[in-house]
């Protein structure tokens, strides 16, 4: 009896230390808007662990619940059920001003009646830090975002990119445990956005603060993140490194939302996948037997000018010149359409013409079997 | 052929209409100011330039008394109505749409719709009952009445300002460790201030100007400047009235200019 109790305490303790390694943790978070039958579940039982010091991106189309999850972590909304933990401590019902978490808003939400320096110092001032400390931190933040010359300007006198930097500096100044970024780059033009992506990554590395970044832009997610959580319809679809998400998507949604991809029906006997036309490839470990859907990225589809033995015969439907790449639209015997992406040669001429019958192979290991 | 954009200014008779409108608006006021410097006893026959009526008005204890009372009432009414209107505006805009919202708007703006004379009579009756029951007299009744009908005038500019304000700013303040009170004190109020000042000034001018409700609610010896002037006119009409009116006009212009400069600086 005593031993069992001892073991239970031990297990509990281990759990606690594990939770403390996570910057933020959501457990079975549900957020419903509306009441009764009209209720919409913006978040439907989401559990996620975000580690200390990582650049974590919540990626998904608009309305997938990513911003709602961010608002639960910030404290702007309370979950209908579930728990939010910050470094192991339950903060589910703590008001936003008592959470050591800061937000960079999509609209920046800079205070129009205050100067750049006053905006940046706002959080520290509200915390009642000494004046000298506020000033020192503000100066350090101004240097960090390279806006020293703008300290006494009103925020309305700044460009979009500069306002973005002020919003970042303001949120970083109180040294939060977690920085939340709600699509902060969506209002910037492409060039500035690229620049800010690098800037954000630099700030994250320099400060070591955990960043939770919300975006619908898959390229942004792939280039900046340590890990990505893909969301759709209020559910977390997959969590992994950009590489894992791109090369090993779990389901159809993740595969199609990130990058271009092909879907093919296949029959599995557990070790071999048979595709239409009798083309056979090795099944990834753990593939169940029966009818499955296989996904292959266009750049992993290799073409040979003639349908040799052991390839999948296909007809070229069209060729699109994309500059760096040549995009072939292919038609399989069973009616499935797939795409192949081949690096352009020096002339930019297509090696294969429309109407030609070609042989298709997939790079070994490139095919991924989807869960649904 | 593309049609030229429609412009009211190009319609025939536009200039003439504009001139008529401006003359109708400002000629009476100009006449009033001009005749305040009239040396003769008449408000209609010019008898040369003089400051006499200003001196007379200035030395008239009844005028002084009424002016002080008018200013006291207007300041109190403006302060009370602005405070109430600010709370009402915060209550009606700082939240999601709620049931009966339109009803609340109508209730707040009610004094704008109800004929003033109805408000005046009902206040007279109500205050009469209270005075009889409690025996309490004083200027408080007039102040209360003024504050009540000034609320919608103060409410409108404050609400307009609040509706134009991004609510994310308050969320951002809360995110940056500001308590609800700090958020109001450091973010909402400073941004709202031009609206609050506009509301207070509008309430002040409306109160300063009121005749009907004051006439009904005031007790003996509680004349405000407008009711004093009305009383004077029943007896004799002298340019002293013009002089007092001109000074009121000057005060209004000073207030409006101050407000204009103040809000321009803030934006």
TrEMBL record, chain A:
EC number(s) reported in the record: 7.6.2.11
Any idea which UniProt keywords this protein has?
ATP-binding, Cell membrane, Membrane, Nucleotide-binding, Translocase, Transport
Pfam family name, one: TOBE_2
What's one GO MF term for it?
ATP binding
Q: What class of enzyme is it?
A: translocase
Q: Give residue ranges for domain ABC transporter.
A: 24-258
Which CDD domains does the record match to this protein?
ABC_PotA_N
- Signal peptide per UniProt: none
Sorted alphabetically, the Gene Ontology cellular component annotations on this record are: ATP-binding cassette (ABC) transporter complex
Spell out the reaction equation it catalyses.
ATP + H2O + polyamine-[polyamine-binding protein]Side 1 = ADP + phosphate + polyamineSide 2 + [polyamine-binding protein]Side 1
Would you identify the family this protein belongs to, as annotated? Belongs to the ABC transporter superfamily. Spermidine/putrescine importer (TC 3.A.1.11.1) family.
Protein purpose:
Part of the ABC transporter complex PotABCD involved in spermidine/putrescine import. Responsible for energy coupling to the transport system.
- Quaternary assembly: The complex is composed of two ATP-binding proteins (PotA), two transmembrane proteins (PotB and PotC) and a solute-binding protein (PotD).
Protein name as catalogued:
Spermidine/putrescine import ATP-binding protein PotA
UniProtKB/TrEMBL annotation, chain B:
Recorded hits in Pfam families, A to Z, give:
BPD_transp_1
Gene Ontology annotations of biological process type: transmembrane transport
Q: Do you know which SUPFAM superfamilies this protein is assigned to?
A: MetI-like
Positions of transmembrane segments: 12-37, 71-91, 112-130, 136-158, 187-208, 243-262
**Which InterPro entries is this protein grouped with?**
Bact_Polyamine_Transport, MetI-like, MetI-like_sf
Q: Where in the cell is it found?
A: Cell inner membrane; Cell membrane
- On the tree of life, the source organism's domain of life is Bacteria
Protein's membrane topology? Multi-pass membrane protein
What does the record list as coiled-coil region(s)?
none
What keywords is this UniProt entry annotated with? Cell inner membrane, Cell membrane, Membrane, Transmembrane, Transmembrane helix, Transport
Domain ABC transmembrane type-1, which positions? 67-262
Cellular component terms, GO, for this chain's entry? plasma membrane
Query: Main localisation, per the record?
Result: membrane
Q: What does the protein in this record do?
A: Required for the activity of the bacterial periplasmic transport system of putrescine and spermidine.
* Family, similarity comment: Belongs to the binding-protein-dependent transport system permease family. CysTW subfamily.
Q: What is this protein called?
A: Spermidine/putrescine transport system permease protein PotC
């Amino acid at each position: 009896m005593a031993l069992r109790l001892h073991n239970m305490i031990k297990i509990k303790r281990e759990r606690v230390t594990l939770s403390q390694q996570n910057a933020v943790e959501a457990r079975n978070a549900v957020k419903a808007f509306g009441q009764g039958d009209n209720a919409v579940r913006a978040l439907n039982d989401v559990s996620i662990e975000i580690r200390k010091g990582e650049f974590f991106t919540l990626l998904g189309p608009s309305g997938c619940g990513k911003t709602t999850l961010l608002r639960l972590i910030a404290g702007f909304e309370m979950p209908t059920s579930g728990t939010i933990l910050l470094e192991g401590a339950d903060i589910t019902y703590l008001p936003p001003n008592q959470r050591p978490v800061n937000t960079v808003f999509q609209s920046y939400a800079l205070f129009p009646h205050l100067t750049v320096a006053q905006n940046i110092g706002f959080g520290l001032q509200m915390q009642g830090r000494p004046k000298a400390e506020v000033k020192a931190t503000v100066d350090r933040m101004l240097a960090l975002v390279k806006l020293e010359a703008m300290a006494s300007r009103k925020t309305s006198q700044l460009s979009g990119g500069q306002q973005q930097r002020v919003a970042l500096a303001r949120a970083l100044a109180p040294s939060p445990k977690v920085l939340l970024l709600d699509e902060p780059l969506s209002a910037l033009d492409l060039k500035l956005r690229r620049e800010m992506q690098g800037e954000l990554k630099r700030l994250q590395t320099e400060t070591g603060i955990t960043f939770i970044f919300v975006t619908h832009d898959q390229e942004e997610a792939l280039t900046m993140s340590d890990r990505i959580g893909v969301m759709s319809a209020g559910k977390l679809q997959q969590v992994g490194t950009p590489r894992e998400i791109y090369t090993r998507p779990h389901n159809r949604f993740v595969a199609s939302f990130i990058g271009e991809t092909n879907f093919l029906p296949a029959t599995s006997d557990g070790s071999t996948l048979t595709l239409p036309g009798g083309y056979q490839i090795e099944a990834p470990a753990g593939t169940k037997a029966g009818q499955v859907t296989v996904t292959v990225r266009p750049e992993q589809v290799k073409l040979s000018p003639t349908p040799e033995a052991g390839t999948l015969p296909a007809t070229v439907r069209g060729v699109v010149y994309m500059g760096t790449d040549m995009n072939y639209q292919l038609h399989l015997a069973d009616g499935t359409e797939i795409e192949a992406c081949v690096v352009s040669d020096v002339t930019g001429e297509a090696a294969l013409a429309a109407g030609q019958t070609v042989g298709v192979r997939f790079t070994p290991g490139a095919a991924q079997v989807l869960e649904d | 052929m593309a049609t030229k954009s429609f412009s009211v200014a190009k319609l025939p008779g536009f200039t003439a209409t504009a001139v008529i409108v401006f003359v109708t608006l400002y000629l009476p006021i100009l006449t009033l100011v001009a005749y305040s410097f009239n040396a003769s006893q008449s408000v209609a026959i010019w008898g040369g330039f003089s400051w006499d009526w200003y001196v007379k008005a200035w030395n008239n204890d009844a005028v002084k008394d009424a002016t002080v009372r008018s200013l006291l009432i207007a300041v109190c009414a403006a302060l009370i109505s602005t405070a109430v209107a600010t709370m009402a505006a915060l209550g009606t805009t700082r939240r999601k749409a709620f049931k009966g919202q339109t009803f609340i708007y109508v209730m707040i703006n009610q004094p704008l719709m109800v004929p003033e004379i109805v408000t005046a009579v009902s206040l007279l009756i109500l205050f009469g009952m209270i005075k009889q029951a409690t025996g309490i007299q004083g200027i408080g009744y007039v102040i209360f009445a003024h504050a009540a009908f000034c609320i919608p005038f103060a409410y409108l500019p404050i609400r307009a300002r609040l509706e134009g304000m991004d609510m994310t700013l308050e969320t951002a303040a809360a995110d940056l460790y500001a308590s609800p009170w700090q958020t109001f004190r450091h973010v909402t109020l400073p941004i709202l201030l031009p609206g609050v000042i506009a509301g207070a000034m509008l309430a002040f001018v409306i109160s300063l100007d009121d005749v009907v409700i004051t006439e009904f609610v005031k007790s003996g010896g509680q004349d405000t400047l407008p009711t004093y002037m009305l009383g004077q006119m029943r007896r004799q009409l002298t340019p002293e009235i013009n002089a007092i009116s001109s000074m009121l006009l000057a005060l209004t212009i000073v207030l409006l200019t101050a407000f204009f400069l103040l809000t321009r600086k803030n934006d």
